[in-house]
Amino acid sequence: MEPKQIREGYLVKRGSVFNTWKPMWVVLLEDGIEFYKKKSDNSPKGMIPLKGSTLTSPCQDFGKRMFVFKITTTKQQDHFFQAAFLEERDAWVRDIKKAIKCIEGGQKFARKSTRRSIRLPETIDLGALYLSMKDTEKGIKELNLEKDKKIFNHCFTGNCVIDWLVSNQSVRNRQEGLMIASSLLNEGYLQPAGDMSKSAVDGTAENPFLDNPDAFYYFPDSGFFCEENSSDDDVILKEEFRGVIIKQGCLLKQGHRRKNWKVRKFILREDPAYLHYYDPAGAEDPLGAIHLRGCVVTSVESNSNGRKSEEENLFEIITADEVHYFLQAASAKERTEWIKAIQVASRTGK
User: Fold this and answer.
1) 162-203, pLDDT tens digit by residue?
2) What b-and-e string marks burial along 264-281, b requiring 16 or more CB atoms within 10 Å of the CB?
3) Cys-Cys crosslink for 36: which of 23, 25, 49, 154, Cβ 3.0 to 4.6 Å?
4) Which H or E run contains 181?
5) Domains defined for the chain, CATH in brackets
6) Strand order in the sheet with 78-82
7) How far is CA 110 from its chain centroid?
8) Ribonucleoprotein: present as a keyword of the record (predicted)?
9) For residue range 37-77, what is the model confidence (pLDDT) as tens digits?
């Protein structure tokens, strides 16, 4: 029986021979991690067994290189991976830790079945409740919160969630609200932000959700991000970097000259609306910027100018200056998310 696939996506991996950092398509299985040079490759470039392995995160071995985690195998071989942003790293780390724990306990990897473990009433529709919580007028208000010299953007506190559930008459009391909030967290409708809420999720407490004003959470598609609160007031950003980050991640981008495709890390900002792209292996300065104000973005089934027709999940950005950019997402869902986010930014940003 083939091992179950748990997670896949682009990560930057440090080579074991030349110690160079290169983007790889990484697949997490129940018993190991496979990594490919390209997503379309049939055979992996390598495989890391998870049995007996340990995971270190965050890994501080490389100075300014952020969002790195390390896997050490039973043969004392170290494998280093770098995610594009904090939440992506934490998601990989949680699943890898759980996979290792399942191997040790002789169990199959499975997402928590909240309805069985917490005995959630069958009348509760978590999906509908999630949409109500996100309602711009009557839902939970997203805030920018500061804690431990960090600013958490587009998030809310644990006690605000319980307050909303009670006032909205979704639950009868705070204890019942805690059960529903834990269910939303376990099913991925809420995500932990900050050390306190993440520790509760990773711990063995009966309720992974905290009814606490110091525990921060966010909606997974809200554009949440965390930034250090610098006291330096003499740092002047270029106008195009002043916008709020609303989405980030890795995509394939086609070059304008040679028409070759490379993995790039993209950061989408609004007001002003810019899409910056970087070398995912760690360059601090962007390789380029796409001004999105007045742009058109559409999905395309194929690109005859250098792209094979069997490739999927392509989309195109046409700027106001009529410059064409072709990008490829890892899945149809991811493509849709990027298109919607870019469309919103292009309408609201400068």
Assistant:
1) 999 999 988 889 999 998 998 888 777 888 888 898 888 876
2) bbbbbbbebbbbbbbbbb
3) 25
4) helix 174-186
5) 5-105 (2.30.29.30), 140-226 (1.10.10.10), 239-348 (2.30.29.30)
6) 46-49, 32-36, 21-29, 5-14, 78-82, 68-72, 54-56
7) 20
8) no
9) 988 888 999 999 999 999 998 888 887 787 899 999 999 99
